Amino acid sequence: xxxxLGRPGLGRPAGVxxxxxxxxxxxxxxxxxxxxxxxxxxxxxxxxxxxxxxxGDRVVVLLGRxxxxxxxxxxxxxxxxxxxxxxxEPAPRLDAGxxxxxxxxxxxxxxxxxxxxxxxxxxxxxxGSAEYHAAPVTAIVPAGSTPSARLAATATVxxxxxxxxxxxxxxxxxxxxxxxxxxAPADAFxxxxxxxxxxxxxx
Length: 203
Known about the structure:
There is one protein chain. By secondary structure, the protein is of the alpha/beta class. It has a single domain, classed as UDP-N-acetylmuramoyl-L-alanine:D-glutamate ligase. It contains eight helices and eight strands, in the order βββαβαβαβαβαβααα. The chain has helices spanning 28-39, 54-65, 96-104, 120-133, 149-154, 167-180, 185-196, 198-202; strands spanning 2-6, 9-10, 26-27, 44-51, 73-76, 111-114, 137-142, 155-160. The strands form two sheets. It has a six-stranded parallel β-sheet, sandwiched between helices. A two-stranded antiparallel ribbon has the order 2-3. α1 crosses α6 and α3 packs parallel to α4 (120-133).
């Protein structure tokens, strides 16, 4: 099971009328990594949080349609699910307790992707869970940031480019799927970048 940890969102607002829902799509780094990993043949579970709102309901429906697990996706009544192009605050909570609860729900983790930066305590819980499952970890950090010593020592760390939700996120998803199939990290990275042309997109 490939676990993508973070907060998925929607790509477009619902708009008005019955046809508006058909225009919605999953969006954001978390969702795009999960979609790419699933498209590459991986079994994917999103662990994290969304708002307890209509947009969160739509995220759950769309994840289900894509065959992506969401049983460990928590609902935060005080948070608002992300929608591209909108300012929606506050973001759903994702603290150490939430991460612990979500990851404990799963019986197996083959690869853990930390799709967004976590508070130190939450990161520690996530890395502890990956260690327990003997699962490789991939983490995305802001460009120019310094990952924690533990994260740097135990994970493949990618710095997020300016457009971290496009080809880069798809590459990370393919990379995770390859790792889950037992491919060595260097070979998985080569295949993931070659397949989607991410290296060319970044040149």
